[in-house]
Amino acid sequence: MAYEATFGDVLRSQGVSRRAFLKFCSTTASLLALPAGTATAMAEALSETRRPSVIWLSFQECTGCTEALTRSHAPTIENLMFNFISLDYHHTLQAAAGEAAEHAREEAERENAGKYLVLVDGSVPMLEYCSTVAGISNKAMLEDACTNAAAVINIGTCSAYGGIPVAKPNPTQAVSVGHIIKDKPIVNVPGCPPMPLAITGVIAQYLTLGKLPELDHLGRPVAFFGENIHDRCYRRPFYDRGQFAETFDDEGARKGWCLYKLGCKAPVTYNACAHLKWNNGVSFPIQSGHGCLGCSEPGFWDMGGVYESVATGKFGDGTRLGAAALAGAALGAGAAVLARRKKAHVHEEDAG
Ligand code: SF4
Ligand code: SF4
Ligand code: F3S
Known about the structure:
Layout: H1 7-13, H2 18-31, H3 38-48, E1 54-58, H4 64-70, H5 77-85, E2 89-90, H6 98-111, E3 117-121, E4 124-125, E5 132-133, E6 136-137, H7 138-146, E7 151-155, H8 157-161, E8 174-175, H9 177-180, E9 186-189, H10 196-209, H11 222-225, H12 229-232, H13 236-240, H14 251-254, H15 273-276, H16 323-351
Parallel strand pairs: 1-2, 1-3, 3-7, 7-9
Antiparallel strand pairs: 4-8, 5-6
Helix pairs in contact: 2-3, 3-10, 5-10
């Protein structure tokens, strides 16, 4: 159990240079909109941080959230931080099994009462026979683990909002963590899976500044979920000009035109994909040629088909996505119509 290495020790043992570490801190501080000078303080505090106690609970999930963090392109500081913090209890990664694993969890909760974090991926089935670990129902384990926790961080859309398991007809009667835990600070880091930098950014802020980030109306860190993907999309000029791919193999698709008509949900989706991107900034779904599914929004599986346009109005009903997102969608659709009219007018003039 005892593991007294600091995060700085872990980085050094993995050959991570001070320069790379400072860059990580500076990027994280800037993404979190922290005051100038925080990056250096963050680096110093993180370097000296001793292993924080983290209980990671996995319920109805696909392991994609854990995979996103641990299977990163290279031994990044993000996944080194993950290795550093997640030693107490993790269903998928822990070495201990059976009673020894449960004993480790209970001991960590007892020894670090009031200080440890609970990270959760997966939704919680209310039908108890659907999911138990060590004979304990998911709901009971969550309640027990959260009793003395400092805060809860939901990793992924499943734990944040229910995700795929709550898709109709929700056969396990799954719910989000927030549906059960009402008396602890909860941060939602949604996405299916979420961006690793968003996860580690929240944890880094908590470890260095001792506080959780500012959240939006859906409990997400504003720093990572405050911007609409559509507003940062590199295909946006095509959208504004009314140039849309109609199929995945037409000329428009080959030219990289907007994927709005092919079901891109980004106009009503808030996440950092378009500017942070995945795999160390290599790409994101839209760049790979597929529209955004809206995976960081509540209920995204039940809000219209994957290839249906947001113009159908099914994605977001005004109560779950928020007025700003819907206004963005309406404006976007309006802009597209105007752009198409303008284009048609130009063509008519050309023809005339
Ligand atoms: Fe898997 Fe997505 Fe749920 Fe994460 S949010 S556990 S990636 S289904
Ligand atoms: Fe990009 Fe999608 Fe917006 Fe088109 S609709 S500009 S592909 S985000
Ligand atoms: Fe998810 Fe859309 Fe980003 S599908 S990963 S929020 S581009």
